[in-house]
Specification:
By secondary structure, the chain is an all-alpha fold. The protein has a domain of about 140 residues. The longest helix has 24 residues. The protein is globular. It starts with a helix and ends with a helix.
Length: about 200
């Protein structure tokens, strides 16, 4: 049952990535054709921009209302990041201490939440790379907020993924993984705070 939930979450994340990929492919072509019909249409558009109510008293054009898209690559990345931190909190809240002996339930609530957190962390990093690849520049230095966001989020996701993989593969005994996973979640939280 838990593996079906993990596969469903992974499938949802992948479908969101493909949707953002298709959205990035459709670019708006603002060039005008060279025929006289389009030039006449452009002149008509420029003339109608001077209608009453379009130009304010100082002669500047009135600002156009801007509505951001609900499902943009940036919004998907933001949603995935916040969901990752929320899942990390739920995973932390569902842990319990054992004496370190005997069998470990790696597919229980804590284990399943941990695996879902790891998948969401990797999906968050992937969506960030797809959506904001041009915001990162080594030339801007380590202190640039966008660069710090990338470093902290990628390192945090890697720490969480390593801790989760370490814990999920050992079914007996004690596995010290909580500190590394919590440090990774904290890194992702700080990364979110830097750019928000």
């Amino acid at each position: 049952m838990h593996s079906k939930l993990i596969f469903a979450i992974a499938g949802l994340c992948l479908s969101l990535f493909s949707a953002s990929g298709y959205a990035a492919d459709s670019t708006l072509d603002l060039t005008l054709a060279s025929d006289s019909y389009s030039i006449q249409k452009a002149k008509l558009f420029m003339l109608t921009a001077n209608d009453v109510g379009v130009v304010n008293e100082k002669g500047n054009a009135a600002p156009a209302a801007f509505e951001p898209k609900l499902f943009s690559g940036s919004n998907i990345h933001e949603f995935l990041g916040i969901s990752t931190v929320a899942l990390a909190g739920l995973t932390f809240a569902s842990h319990f201490h054992t004496n370190g002996f005997g069998a470990r339930n790696v597919n229980g609530t804590h284990g399943s939440l941990g695996k879902a957190t790891g998948i969401m962390a990797l999906a968050t990093v992937a969506s960030g790379l797809i959506t904001h690849w041009d915001d990162f520049s080594v030339e801007d230095g380590w202190t640039d907020p966008d660069n710090l966001h990338v470093y902290l989020a990628a390192t945090g996701a890697a720490l969480m993924a390593y801790a989760i993989a370490n814990s999920a593969t050992q079914t007996t005994g004690r596995v010290d993984h909580a500190g590394m996973a919590e440090l990774g979640a904290f890194g992702m939280l700080v990364a979110i705070k830097l750019t928000w």
